[in-house]
Amino acid sequence: MIAGVGIDIVEVERLSEKPKLWERFISAKEFKYLEKFKFKEEHVAGIWAAKEALVKATNNREIIFCDVSVAHDGSGRPYFEDFETEGTLHLSISHEKHYATAVVVWEK
Asked: Any catalytic annotation for residue 56?
């Protein structure tokens, strides 16, 4: 049964101009992941969108973004690490030059 759905979209430029803000929502694991990219901004925006979508899907406004990590499995599929909830979370992230979006489906 679907318990919640969340979606978010963010303009990449909005976050690329504020790298100090990144420290408030990017986890240490995510910073390590971002090291491999020349242009990090699109990925940062995707992480932001994923965490915003997580808040919306779970209706949990007390999530501390730095405590939750977006990770990727061997095939590149994103998922949440360091976040426990009843059921299963499904995450999809998409980004391109100007926008990033994410969808979270919470299944119980």
From this structure: yes
Beta bridge partners of 90: 105
Beta bridge partners of 10: 100
Query: Where along the chain do its domains lie?
Result: 2-107
Question: Among residues 40, 43, 51, 56, which one is catalytic?
Answer: 56
Q: Specify burial of residue 16 (Cβ count, 10 A radius: 0-12, 13-18, 19+).
A: middle
Q: How far apart are the first and last CA of the chain?
A: 5
Q: Which fold has domain 2-107?
A: Ribosomal Protein L22; Chain A (3.90.470)
The one catalytic residue among 29, 95, 97, 108: 95
Q: Retrieve residue 103's tokens.
A: 């969808």
Percent of the chain with pLDDT over 70: 100
Contact 52, 103 (CB under 8 A): no
The pLDDT tens digits of the residues spanning 57-98 come to 999 999 999 999 999 999 999 999 999 999 999 999 999 989
